[in-house]
User: Fold these one by one.
Assistant:
Number 1:
Amino acid sequence: MKEDPLYKNRKVITIGVVSELTGLSERQIRYYEERKLIFPERTERGNRKYSFSDVERLIDIANKRDEGVRTYEIRQEMLKNKKKEDDAKIRNQMLRGQINARFGVQNPKGKN
Amino acid sequence: MKEDPLYKNRKVITIGVVSELTGLSERQIRYYEERKLIFPERTERGNRKYSFSDVERLIDIANKRDEGVRTYEIRQEMLKNKKKEDDAKIRNQMLRGQINARFGVQNPKGKN
DNA sequence: CGTGTAAGGAATTCTGACACG
DNA sequence: CGTGTAAGGAATTCTGACACG
């Protein structure tokens, strides 16, 4: 896990600025959240906060929408990609497991 | 000049979020601007927008203040550092000029 | 389905000022 | 000097709803 200087993923941008950055209306941005295409965090009071990644994703979404792609379809595509990534991650972990079993680490948790 | 993915330097964070991020009061943040330690941009209406760099600089400032350093002194230090950078930049440009004069570029602007 | 809009309220931000020290 | 605070107003954001298509 990398840490802090992942400016790209830190949720700090309010919806007004996101609207400026993307050219989308606040209505649209909120609607894409309703359709589970985007997942802002909230301030204590409840104001939405977005990351640069979110902004980029919104621009992607806007382009897809311009091509006539439905929000549902965009979501399906997202889920498909996510599944691929997750699968890759799991394969990776299994590989590590194999390696440790054969070559490594008598005492994985450091217990006695 | 690098371009867009300089997330670090894009002014997009409102003062409320900056306050959360730095632990400083909005009053303090505005005051450090008054003392020319920090230079937010503004939205159309006039709301301040800060970058991640600004946030980091504010954290630096807060640390200096905790050590008792005055805002005036912090500013002097900043200006000193800036001067160094600018001087380095100029030396760099002069060097390029020398190189071009001796070895390069008959037609620097591409004109006929 | 995707987006606009008016509605009402609550939180945000702004500026200029007084306060203290 | 550095920061808190109350003041008043303007812009922001939120939600739920009606509208159109």
Number 2:
Amino acid sequence: MGRARPGGTARVCETGGVSTTRSTAAGKVLEVLAAFDREHPAQTLSEIAQRTGLPVSTTHRVVGELAAWGALERREDGAWHVGLRLWEIASGCPRTQILRDVALPFMQDLYEATHENVQLAVREGTELVFVERIAGHRSVELLTGVGTRFPIGSTGMGRVLLAHAPADIQQEVLDAPQRAWTPHTVTDPGTLRAQLDRIRREQVFVSDRQLSESTVAVAAPVRIGRTGPVSAALGIVFTARGAGGARGLREPLLRAAYGISDELGRRTRTTD
Amino acid sequence: MGRARPGGTARVCETGGVSTTRSTAAGKVLEVLAAFDREHPAQTLSEIAQRTGLPVSTTHRVVGELAAWGALERREDGAWHVGLRLWEIASGCPRTQILRDVALPFMQDLYEATHENVQLAVREGTELVFVERIAGHRSVELLTGVGTRFPIGSTGMGRVLLAHAPADIQQEVLDAPQRAWTPHTVTDPGTLRAQLDRIRREQVFVSDRQLSESTVAVAAPVRIGRTGPVSAALGIVFTARGAGGARGLREPLLRAAYGISDELGRRTRTTD
DNA sequence: TGCGGCGTTTCCGTCAGGCGGAAACCGGTC
DNA sequence: GACCGGTTTCCGCCTGACGGAAACGCCGCA
């Protein structure tokens, strides 16, 4: 397809890069927004242009419009970052907002009882997204933060979500090779499948040093109503000094998960 | 250049209406997003069209593109709402994210000591935006939630932010009439100005039943470094059974605010 | 002080693609 | 089976998006 520019159709824009929603005007706006991920919270105009593959002048225009509206803001040093206005709008996202509202008090109790990291996550395709997290001064530092994505098989909470995911999703994940984060990480599809079965039976799942040599996670499913579909996972992560610590956490964790589930059931029934 | 349109500038388009970034393609995208505020977290296509003033077919196209990208999602009942993808991007907003990261552990401690609502807010023009909030089962229900805007003069935290805002902002707020939420609300500009002076001297501010008959708030400024510019306000809200309760809170609140300020100072110095 | 490099901003002619009216479509309801 | 509100599709017109290029501003270096 030499230069020629045939029919003007050859646009798909492989960019080699990242997202690419195509050559539509709205697409450009979204591409620019997508350039701001966790590793690039603030970038100069030309960085954005580079990362999106858009010409500088186009980027300039789009960024200008986004900024005028408040979706982007500029630091004194000239770098652009996501603006408060966009954050406000997005913070109304029901999938996180309702969950958050309902879950926080329970997470709070859990934190107070344990003083460990308490986390809440949802499944998105074959990945998990952390939606909320409570951590105090006394909790372990984690590599995961609110708004972060993670391959679903890699975390304890993820495996709980996976266990309750549709069959095709499970298959897709089991078919793909699992990354071994530590020597303890379960990567064999057979063992993993057995683990998923066990999770469905036992509810609470203890993930012992699967993601990092020094942490253990306990996770439980959150449903919409006591028996409804699983909509999130609740988890506690703490330092691995013998996973014995997990024992005492099962009960309170499960109780909290039930609490959230019940309240979610009540809430969605009324809302609807 | 058709009509000549001097300088080609006459576009601003007052529209009379609501938001309006105007007829540019990107503008439409943003208008659609802006249709999703706290009162309208989920809407049908035609509601969106109505609220934005865009023709249905146009709305349909824009919504479609947003959905394809993940900025919007659709419920089974057909209503649209903000999608997880947008939430992810926006949750990286530095103004809230850094603040949140730093402040949460301190807020946590504060919550544990008091079991009351602990809140964090920033100023945006003459309004305040709640950025984070901790509440357990034992705290009072509040009308403010994370991601909510509020006139800055109306809340205790807002007045603290106002006291440290640039002079022109203060003037603007003082010039506008204050809404009286309760019989106790201070609305007189003179008294208010005196209050601001006092806030600057005493740091901690007690706002007694200013917003609701049944709540008292204590608030303190959060700076960037111990002496840097005020970047947020930290507050505790509790039920008004005699504001005497505020007494014991001053110390821990101030200590937490200092802790956050110090850490923010450290953090921004290193990052830069 | 002048030069070259880098990022940003402005300009403007071209033409792709945004635009939206209208008509088809799709359940409900009376 | 006619009606009605909402959604989706179609398509021709023409506007405003597009991006190359040039001007600008800022720094560091000679």
